[in-house]
Amino acid sequence: MMRTSFFAVLLLLLTACATTPDDDGPLQPAPPWRQEPIPGGAAPAVYTQEWLQAENRATCALIAPRSLGPEGAGATPRAATFSGGWAVAYDLPNLRSAFGVAGTGAKADAPGSYDQWPHAIQWDDGSKAEYGPEGGQGPKQLAYVRIQGQECLYNVWSAIGREHLELLLRELRFVR
Questions:
Q1: Nearest to 135 by CA among 110, 159, 107
Q2: Contacts of 63 (CB under 8 A, 6+ apart)
Q3: pLDDT value at position 15?
Q4: In the prediction, which pLDDT does 159 show?
């Protein structure tokens, strides 16, 4: 009897160690931004314009989604306001700020940063994305992204839904 309990506890511990805290799956391979960067001319010009004006550009590399997915097709990028940082929002014909990307003025390792997200992705280089409904209720989905080697906290958001937000996260690349 004692031996059975020991093995049951051991099995539970091994299972818990093999997954992320929210059971979204095991550690991910290399993060998407470690793939080939987007050439500067291939990203919408507003990204570079906003990043060049940002106070944090020396410590917050420019990133953009390589693809917006079918839901984002035809969206119009525009400058968005993020104090101390840079941001690009995308508008759809019937939805302002449908989704976007920001390199915020906040530090990635700032104490007291919200960390109660229901979902998380961890990549093999130590980078991490935590996400869920904005403000805990939505309807927008918001991700806090911490990229290894960058000091800023990135925000990625989508009012289209969680699947679209996850697509944007998979498509993030550095911009040359």
A1: 159
A2: 33, 101, 103, 147, 154, 172, 173, 174, 175
A3: 36
A4: 98
